[in-house]
Amino acid sequence: MTRPTFLVQLTDLHIREPGRLAYGRIDTAPYLREAVASVLRLRQAPDAIVITGDLSDFGREAEYAHLAELLAPLGATPLYLLPGNHDERVQLRRSFPMHTYLGDGEFVQFNVAVGPLRLIALDTVTPGASHGSLCSRRLDWLARELEASRGQPVVIAMHHPPFRTLIGHMDDIGLLEGAAELEALVRQHPNVERVICGHLHRAIDVRFGGTVASTAPAPAHQVCLDLAPDAPSAWTLEPPGFRVHAWDGQRLVTHLAASGVFEGPYPFHDNGALID
Ligand SMILES: [Fe+2]
Ligand SMILES: [Fe+2]
Questions:
Q1: Which listed ligand is nearest to 173 at the C-alpha?
Q2: How many CB atoms lie within 10 A of CB 239?
Q3: Does some domain include residue 269?
Q4: Ligand number nearest to the C-alpha of 15
Q5: Integer Cα distance of 91 and 231 in angstroms
Q6: Residue 264 region, left (φ>0) first, then alpha (ψ -120 to 50), else beta?
Q7: CA–CA separation, 121 vs 205, rounded Å?
Q8: Is the distance from CB of 80 to CB of 121 less than 8 angstroms?
Q9: Of 39, 86, 87, 107, which residue is least crowded by CB atoms under 10 Å?
């Protein structure tokens, strides 16, 4: 069997200027440093890394400069950045001029190859608002890219998930425009292996348009697991993590990886027998 293709997904980094705390309480930088170290410790080096938005906390130049410094240890691994509701498109492009795929159009959308996979990124940002939207211009672009990618395994990446999560305060700032149209489009393309999203700061999986849509945990703070419609908007320091999407030539196999250093590995067996 040929070696699988590994796409690592990080999301919702919320990097601030050095020394400044997010929400007056959390320094997100050391958490990203740990996530980057965890990615570098993976037994299988990723073929590419995608970060599905909320790269910074306020879209400021100093935040992106700090982010670039924190991501530098990833070296030459292809790295793809998507904006989230905490980002600022113009500043993002200005701060990452080498990232030419970010383009210069109205939206940050791109279609790149990761081995045999197509990674198609959608821009769900609504400037000045926390919720997401996919207008007809963005969806028309996707329709053309999906047409051009027929017969190839596709991963669609976007910040706001196109489904209800049952976390009320997050659904209030979810993808409020274009989710049904996106689902209809995805349904027409069974080669879409996954729709991968951020924004939720925790791992969620749903059936969507005949494929699987998912979100991923963040490297620092997670959104509280409270499925009451009126749940308070709050975060927690549950164990952080990221996703490893592996294409084996047949299927996309998605793992949830913990960020951090843990005990082990320890063997199950000794001299061919289970340790008693
Ligand atoms: Fe976020
Ligand atoms: Fe977000």
A1: 2
A2: 10
A3: no
A4: 1
A5: 33
A6: left
A7: 19
A8: yes
A9: 107
Distance between CA 6 and CA 8 in Å, rounded? Answer: 6
Domain assignment present for 37 = yes
> Residue 226 corresponds to which tokens in the numbers above?
């409270």
Give CA–CA dist 73/94, Å, rounded: 21
pLDDT in tens, 235-261: 999 999 999 999 999 999 999 999 999
Domain presence at residue 273: no
- Å from CA of 127 to ligand 2 middle: 12
Q: What share of the chain is helix, strand, coil (3-state, %, to 5)?
A: 25, 30, 50
> How are strands ordered across the β-sheet holding 79-82?
79-82, 48-52, 5-10, 241-247, 252-258
What is the CA(198)–ligand 2 centre distance, in A? 7
Which range marks the domain in which residue 212 is found?
5-260
The CATH number for 61's domain is: 3.60.21.10
Kind plus residue range of the DSSP H or E element containing 36: helix 28-41
Q: For 178-216, how does the pLDDT look when each residue is reduced to its tens digit (9 = 90+)?
A: 999 999 999 999 999 999 999 999 999 999 999 999 999
As given in the structure block, the two tokens for residue 208 are: 């969507």
Distance 122 CA to ligand 1 centre (A): 16
The answer to whether residue 173 is domain-embedded is yes
Query: Which residue do the tokens 């199950």 mark?
Result: 268
* Residue pair 43/74 in contact by the 8 Å Cβ criterion: no
Amino acid at 214: S
